[in-house]
Design a protein that fits this description.
Elements lengths: L4 H12 L6 H7 L4 H12 L3 H15 L7 H8 L4 H12 L3 H6 L1 H12 L5 E4 L7 E6 L8 E7 L10 E5 L5 E3 L5 E10 L15 E4 L4 E3 L6 E5 L14 H10 L3
Parallel strand pairs: 2-9
Antiparallel strand pairs: 1-4, 2-5, 3-4, 3-6, 6-7, 6-8
Helix pairs in contact: 2-3, 4-5, 8-9
Length: 255
Amino acid sequence: MKSKMPEILSFISEEAVDRKMTSEEIADHFGYDKHHFSRKFKEVNGFSVVEFLSSLKVEKAIIELDEEKRIIDLQGYSGFESSGSFTNTFKKYTGSSPREYKSGMSEIFYGVKNFEADDKSVEYFEEENNSFCTVNIEVPDEFEKGVIFIGLFRTLIPNHIPISGLATKNLTGNKLKNIPNGDYYLLSCAISRSNNILSYFNLGSSLRGKEEERLSFPNCSGKTYTIKLREPIPEDPPILVNVGKLLISRLKNTI
């Protein structure tokens, strides 16, 4: 099943969500028992089929965020059965309700644009700790230098606030500090400079990359990692954490 996983992930991203398929129907499509499929899926990917499906639904809603769409329209379009499940899942993965997310976009956009214009980096961490790691970033030549986000996450789907994170414009010497003991995934994405407000929230087209192996701290403290950012591919999990909101909140010290 591991060798088929890219095909399975691509199918879920490109077809299953639009067809409103359940995890059981997806398992049946590929000829697997639902329990075996769910178990192996999580074992290979580090996240469940249900979490992947719900994250893709939230991404669909974010893609359609604009002034013309009502919240109820977003719920139906993204495939959630009820307004309650839509609002709760959206808030769980992005940190804001759909209405709050939409109303805060302009302020966050202008805040990120101001951040792009200076040389500072902004870090985020949950608690003080001695563990750290250094991250270097490689980007394609055509990257229009904007903001690079680097973080340690509990799963390979960045649908939660990072354990330790950094917003920066620097490619080298980026230090993630105050990393608590535990096992985490090192992920990064980059947002090219743009005047399109949605490009700072819909990160489906953003460059991204990761450290292939899960990192265990404090064993990995002091090490240096290099992440090569690339264009997205169909099997990539969606980037749902509202990195702009996290950045602006840190600048305002409101977290």
